[in-house]
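Form P-L/3: holo structure prediction, ligand FE2/S2 (inorganic) cluster.
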Amino acid sequence: MALQIRLRVNGKEHESSVEPRLLLVHYLRDTLGLTGTHIGCETSLCGACTVLLDGKAVKSCTMLAAQASGAEITTIEGLAATCNSHGSGNGASLHPVQEGFWEKHGLQCGYCTPGMILTATALLNENPDPSETEIRTAISGNLCRCTGYQHIVDAIQYAAKKMAANGH
Ligand code: FES
Ligand code: FES
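OUTPUT (holo model):
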């Protein structure tokens, strides 16, 4: 039996009829075509599927689409549009966390990157001036095979400084 769900994704309302078993990650990728949210393990270990749900980082592979009904979701495709620090907030410029990954070489293959960026964004929204230990703890649920993590930490520290300077 299909369920009717309604959620807001990257600022846009969506109403869909879904199977109760449909995972949020499959809804985002297959129904909405937002393939920036990656699938790694599908067991809540790797964090590649992380999105923001009402501002909190969640692993969308272990949540049903129906559970997200009524929520506000941000995926990597919509993150730049949430940023008003140096533009109109229309997505024309990168979010500071994205900029940090660009400037500090925080990615190689990029597979973990959307999840890392959204986890880092949730951290900085809650804790604008995290210590290195707090950053490492925050991203401990996101696995990266490529970078050795130091560049990712540098990228998040860059973003924290930039956001503070912009009065985020
Ligand atoms: S795909 Fe969701 S945590 Fe790995
Ligand atoms: S950049 Fe390749 S998995 Fe992290």
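COMMENT: Residues 39-42, 44-49, 59, 61 surround FE2/S2 (inorganic) cluster (ligand 1) (CB under 6 Å).
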